[in-house]
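REQUEST ID: PR-0412
SUBMITTED BY: lab tech R.K.
PRIORITY: routine
TASK: structure prediction, single protein chain
INPUT:
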Amino acid sequence: MGQPSRRTRLAACAVAAGALLSALVPAAGATAAPASAPRTVAADDPVPGHEGMPDDGFEDEPEGEQDDLAGPDGTLTGRSAADVLPAPVPGRAGDFKLAAGSSLTGLVNDLDAALPKQGLTELMEQANRPAGWEGACGSSSIYGPDLAVNHRICWKSDDATSTEWIPQAITGVSDAQEDEDWGSSNAEPIAVAGYDAANPGRSDYTSGRDNCVQDSASDACNEKGIRVSFFNQATQMYRHVLLVWPYVNSKDHISFDALHAREGTCTTSVTASCKAQGGIHAGGMVWYGNYLYVADTANGMRVFDLRKIMDLNPDNDADVNDPTPDGLVSDVLDKKRVGRQSNVWYSYGYRYVMPQVATLKFTTAKNGQETSGNQCYSTGRPKASYISLDRTDTDHLVLGEYCNHNNGGDSTGRVGTYPMTALTAAVEGAAGTTASADLAYGLPAGAVFNGEDLWHKIQGVTRYEGRWYFHRSNASGNGRLLQAAPQSADGTSQLVGNAKVLQSAVGPEDLYVAHGRGDGFAPQLYSLGEHAPTTECPGCKREMYSYNMAEVIGDFGS
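STATUS: complete
OUTPUT:
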């Protein structure tokens, strides 16, 4: 799409750092609570964060995820050849079946009654962080020579260099709806998910030590899970939203926590082998209608509803605790607490939180073999490493696996597709409602660069007009964009790779197609870089970027 015009917007005040506020009544100057019948606030004794947080039934994600800042031999600079990759595995769509988990409707409704809400259109008006656009992103480039970059978007300096938050997944309003026109705004939002990668001084909750709230602890101490950054293309501003999990705490009150694979079971100190919490990776994300589908590698997908964004600072004054509809107050200055604690609502300092409303879990059991080094197998439960949307025919979600065959396994990865009608029905149906994949493929073979077969370590996929596009990472060097198409072989359909390979950006991640049907601009293939520049990776940089889809197709010769 072309460069959008600027429009004047009110920018929200940045969250100020300051003393912890935990008053049980609104401070002077706070907006009055909504008129309602008198309510009695139940006793809520001080409790350590996360006490009463039930195991949510999600499996931990021990695979190490798709963190590819190491070459094939485990070093940053190594480029030794991979083992000979196996032949493409047959697709088994049945392995990809998903089923709706236990209903979260009651919990979400209780949160809805307790906290103020904000729509995405209004949230975009409150975008408070400036992004760089095009030339403002500087002359330092992460792009290879084969693909001409059309748009560049870069993050505010702290997000561009953060060791805590690592960008992974990308989607946008073009996935959300056909006309690309969300609400009354012309923001045309792009959404990026990042995961919390650094947790110094982790708390050991089961032994009663809530270390993360001590004065000496960094506010990065807690496992904050996943946040989504919504970028307003009209103003080139963006805003973070924390994704959360609703639950009833040990005092029988509705609360929320950050997204974790599960709570830990440490009984002594937290160590590398005994972590207090296991976070998720959010390697892919699709916004479709009102729902945001977020990949959960070991389990399937977690689903969020953009109609349920909670606003913990409606008066836009972080220095004043705002009253909430349940008779309590919210505090957005305290970056070390989350959920309801001592009759105050906290959110790790974020103004906006969005609770999970549904779960889609794989029904197939894991293969059972070793996965700690990102090994993959041709049968059993797939990994939800990345997802995207194909709108070029009947709307489908595409899901695939990140696999590092240098560490073993009998598969370099599989991909499958789901009709969006089936996924929506599962999200809105009763627990156990299933959504089946309508096809699945193993990855192709044959493309080689510098002696290493490229058809593994895939970070993102999309399907466009019948052809498949894959983003392949390459440690601290430039990644590769690969193309494949289905062909019939021995009576079965399989993906066959294009022999041509295009050099892409450093640290390539998820893929998102902005089809341009609503605004009349040329279709764009978007992606983003995950790695911040370091002494070990001076060529790394975090940017969102797009290529003209017609040029991508032409560069591949088809």
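NOTES: DSSP finds six helices and 35 strands in the chain.
REVIEWED BY: pending
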